[in-house]
Design brief:
326 residues, alpha/beta, Cobalt-precorrin-4 Transmethylase, domain 1, Rossmann fold, 3 domains, five-stranded parallel sheet, four-stranded parallel sheet, 37% helix, globular, binds iron/sulfur cluster
């Protein structure tokens, strides 16, 4: 028997961001408005619980446009899509509702603007991630994908003085800052956004996990293994010297991780529902007597406007326009 209770410190903020809330609401409202089935290209957000809940309500998840019947209601996931996907959807006369996070769309627009001025665009991101594929496929021009300082050293742009960069929204803020630093050193005239302007939710969740990692013996991150931002949260705990695990749910929590642990920090990626966090808390309470503390952190008040066709007339007046203030 452990005499000492286990202190559980919850990170603040954690879990759903405004882009994820909007994407889920788009699927729910599309089902209400158009009936089932509604098709969703790719997981609407990278979380199995969210996907299963929506599937049970009538959403059908597919990877390719040619899996969707002609004319069907189709939602693009929060990660965004390449122009070729938009064109394929047009060819199939799909009724498209775009759940791409407005902050991802902003990256597309920035990249398009730079390419339109004849600049090469450096995209800082992870190869193979759907957001990266979408962003690369939205920019008509020369795009160089880099994911490390070493990649920057190897970069061969067409004209070093006409170079710009954009980034994936869910990267490690620290790694991104380092890569931007390397770009600035090699190409002093390069243009692009400051790290803090990329995504408020990524920034805030990473700051919160950094704050709890200093206080705890163990870090638990609730999130999917294919969720970029959740992986980054786990890495921050690990880099700060704390054993850190990414778990999809309470079932993956292993009792032996708690041996000798007096304080555990708990957070969740931007696509992980709070209900799963609470299941993990209940599981911790089965294993040990727990005391819960919520870390003081940034209160987020960010909401993104829904597509017009999904806003009921009675609701529109109450919605704020898009804002990225945190
Ligand atoms: Fe949008 Fe940021 Fe959330 Fe990604 S993490 S969906 S960019 S708000």
């Amino acid at each position: 028997m452990h005499e000492q209770p286990l202190k559980v410190i919850l990170a603040q903020p954690r879990g759903f961001c405004a882009g994820v809330e909007r994407a889920i609401e788009i699927v729910e409202r599309a089902i209400e408005r158009f009936g089932t089935p509604v098709y969703v290209r790719h997981e609407i957000v990278h979380n199995k619980r969210v996907v299963e809940d929506l599937r049970a309500r009538g959403a059908r998840f597919v990877e390719e446009i040619d899996e969707i019947p002609e004319g069907a209601v189709t939602i693009f996931s929060a990660h965004g899509v390449a122009s070729a996907v938009e064109d394929a959807a047009k060819d199939r006369r799909l009724h498209v509702i775009d759940a791409t996070c407005p902050l991802v769309t902003k990256v597309h627009r920035e990249g398009q603007r730079y390419a339109g001025r004849g600049f090469d665009v450096v995209l800082i991101g992870h190869p193979g991630h759907p957001e990266v594929e979408g962003t690369m496929g939205q920019i008509e021009g020369t795009v160089h994908l880099v994911s490390s300082v070493e990649d920057v050293e190897r970069l061969q742009p067409r004209a070093p003085d006409r170079l710009s960069y954009v980034t994936q929204t869910t990267l490690s803020v620290d790694d991104t800052r380092e890569i931007i630093g390397a770009l600035n050193r090699r190409f002093p005239s390069i243009v692009g956004p400051d790290v803090k302007d990329i995504c408020y939710a990524t920034q805030n969740r990473q700051s919160a996990v950094r704050a709890i990692a200093g206080l705890v013996d163990l870090v638990l991150v609730v999130g999917a293994h294919n969720s970029s931002n959740s992986n980054r949260l786990r890495e921050i705990g690990q880099d700060l010297g704390r054993p850190s695990y990414l778990i999809e749910g309470a079932g993956q929590l292993r009792a032996e991780w708690l041996e000798g642990v007096r304080t555990v920090g708990l957070t969740a990626g931007a696509s992980a529902p709070e209900a799963v966090v609470q299941e993990v808390v209940r599981r911790l309470a089965e294993l040990r007597t727990i005391e819960i503390e919520v870390l003081d952190g940034i209160e987020e008040n960010v909401h993104f406007r829904l597509p017009d066709e999904l806003i009921p007339a009675t609701d529109g007046a109450n919605r704020l326009p898009e804002t990225t203030a945190a």
